[in-house]
Design a protein that fits this description.
Helix content of chain A: 25-40%
Oligomer: homodimer
Distance between the termini of chain A: 52 Å
CATH class of the largest domain in chain A: Alpha Beta
Shape of chain A: globular
Largest sheet of chain A: 7 strands, mixed
Strand content of chain A: 5-15%
Largest interface: A-B, 76 and 76 residues
Number of strands of chain A: 13
Number of helices of chain A: 11
Order of helices and strands of chain A: HEHHEHEHEEHEEEHHHEEHEEEH
């Protein structure tokens, strides 16, 4: 056989969500009448905005006629969408990002996984622990050295500053999985580190729409000097519910000498753009009506988060996140159960799924991630069941 | 700044289509009333099938309701589409490809560019000349050694067999840019080479739907033993006109020990699946009505190809391809012009765009690629204008 990439052998077996799914299926088979509620996945439950649906219907009508159909989209994104993003997500907030710094893609997962191709193989990469596993695995596949930045309760789950010189740092705020948000001062410390150490920050702000506290930055470019050291990724998935539609974008400032041009080269060579239909749907999110719809849905999820957090706190778990984020990070260590032990207990005894923190990294042990992106009635019912379990003394 | 991937510096400046666009704009500015006709691009001009439009409209309706909306698609593709592909594109032709060997993506360009990530960095890669540049550039970016397999008229543009041991071979039939098709015997020679040399074939059959000659293979898996040595990529772009919709698939047989599992790992880690809406549109292509619509459109393009080829031959150019492919590869060397010289002459004097063969590699010098994927009236008009130019003695 052909000689394969040797670094795949270094990947951890990463079957977190698959293992969760298998265990849920087992329980379902033994209890066919049970209604299993999932607060485990990070997927959305509310439909996509009507404004986007209408725009996509119109786009489909165009695609059905020779005289109006669209062929290959521009690899970097249609100008109408890049302009809408630059204006509505940056310039309207006083952030100087121009159209040719915005690149449309089919998902933040792809952007976050692909961006490392621009870096040399011997770059040292710093990754928070716990973490969204894509940062880690995409760099393991490329054979890079990784150092972990522990995130602990005493520091409100902000990653510790690297102790050695690193070349690339991944940050995510509002954070998946901890729901923590970085303050301007905390981000500034990372921007300063990057400036001093010739390092680059990959800033994942997929959950920025959940930030309602005005003192919390939604973009790393709110920090002076960040355009010289940071790339930012964002998504329509957790704002407009596009998880099943697929649209995102990445900002690569021109101040990042060379990287802007390299990303254009990478994208032109390896990507053929996002569906015209989808890009029209994404553009509509920025209409007045679209913004209203998105704000309403985000409020719904944030209310879920409040209900889940309050409920878990009443049960006696110390909780983090959930205020400007759709995730609640609950400390379950006092139960004496491991993350996986707690998962199995909740699943088998309350038919409730939540995600074991240890699945996101060693520092996640003793914690559980609860997602607020489900339906209201499920959040209410799940909390009732967990309370019941606590009253029975099972957790 | 961060240390960047050094191999980007080895990329050839690849501005073929951009240069063509710039030159076309210049001519348009000087001749604002001229109607420029393009037989240059490989993009389609006919709308996507009504059956697909209807399926996507229905999918949109589902996405507009909380109770029927779909979130994250499966990374490897929805079962309904993987099954439809395995059945309609393989099993119905007697080719034993199973659902778990089919992986849905957002485009063959991505698949062809991403698949090299599975191979070791020191693999030697063989690439035809002339060639679709993505094979070459994605491997240059990964720092691999490339050997070129010249394709010449005397061999009907089939790549020469590698003279040294190579690890990976890219093949494309029906070919872009030459329109040549490989016979079973020719493919068998490559399968034999790969079997003997522990090499892997990446077989790009994006244009398979244009094959009307029953003796010409549409899939490399028509060759005995190919499942042990070949990956195949295919697209809905040039069959159902999905260039602006984005859907494709890649077959990685389980016989390719390890690669099937590695591709699953790669895709699960770096990709979040294709839009549900798009996958429903792709599935509809396999309905009886969808197949009829596709066959009608392909016949239309093949008739264009016949018209263009006959016209160019009448003018005196020796032509290749165009019979089972949407591209005509015309030998213009007798004009004394280079490919770029011919391009400029045709553009400035006849307002017709075609693609300089040298843009696809050194062996393409003296040839031009004419695309039959445009509209009938444009094909007819373009040929008239080129005839006129010939009569005036300008070419």
């Amino acid at each position: 056989m052909v000689k394969v990439n040797p670094f795949y052998a270094d990947l951890l077996p990463s079957y977190l969500f698959r293992d969760m799914g298998n265990k849920a299926r087992e329980v379902k088979e033994k209890n066919p009448d049970a209604k299993i509620i999932s607060l485990g996945i990070g997927d959305v439950s509310r439909h996509i905005p009507n404004t986007s649906i209408k725009a996509m219907q119109n786009a489909l009508t165009e695609m059905a006629d020779d005289s109006t159909m669209r062929g290959y989209p521009p690899e970097l994104g249609y100008a109408f969408l890049r302009e809408a993003i630059a204006k509505n997500d940056y310039q309207d907030f006083g952030i100087d990002i121009s159209v040719d710094e915005v690149f449309v893609s089919d998902g933040s997962k792809c952007d976050v996984a692909n961006v490392q191709e621009l870096f040399a193989a011997d770059c040292v990469v710093a990754i928070p622990d716990p973490v969204y596993p894509v940062y880690r695995d995409s760099n393991i596949m490329a054979g890079r050295k990784i150092v972990y930045l522990p995130c602990r309760a005493e520091n409100n789950f902000m990653p510790e500053m690297p102790k050695e010189k690193v070349d690339v740092i991944y940050l995510c705020s509002p954070n998946n999985p901890t729901g923590a948000v970085a303050s301007k001062e905390q981000l500034k410390a990372f921007v300063d580190y990057a400036s001093k150490n010739d390092a680059l920050i990959i800033f994942d702000s997929a959950y920025k729409e959940f930030v309602r506290d005005k003192s919390v930055p939604k973009s790393i470019y709110e920090i002076a000097g960040a355009k010289k050291v940071a790339i930012e990724t964002r998504s329509f998935s957790k704002t407009a519910g596009f998880t099943g539609v697929r649209c995102a974008y990445m900002v690569v400032p021109k101040e990042l000498s060379g990287l802007n041009a390299m990303w254009i080269r990478r994208t032109s060579t390896k990507f053929n753009g996002v569906s015209y239909i989808v890009q029209k749907g994404a553009e509509a999110v920025f209409s007045d009506e679209g913004k209203k719809e998105v704000a309403e849905v985000i409020s719904y999820y944030l209310e879920n988060a409040k209900i889940i957090k309050k409920g878990l706190e009443e049960i006696g778990f110390k909780c983090f996140g959930g205020d400007n984020a759709p995730y609640i990070w609950a400390d379950i260590s006092k139960t004496g159960l491991s993350s996986w032990g707690f998962f199995e207990k909740l699943l088998s005894r309350a038919f409730v799924i939540c995600t074991p923190g240890s699945g996101f990294g060693k520092c996640g042990e003793g914690f559980m991630r609860f997602s607020a992106l489900g339906k209201r009635e499920d959040a209410l019912e799940a909390i009732m069941r967990i309370k019941d379990l606590k009253e029975k003394g099972e957790i």
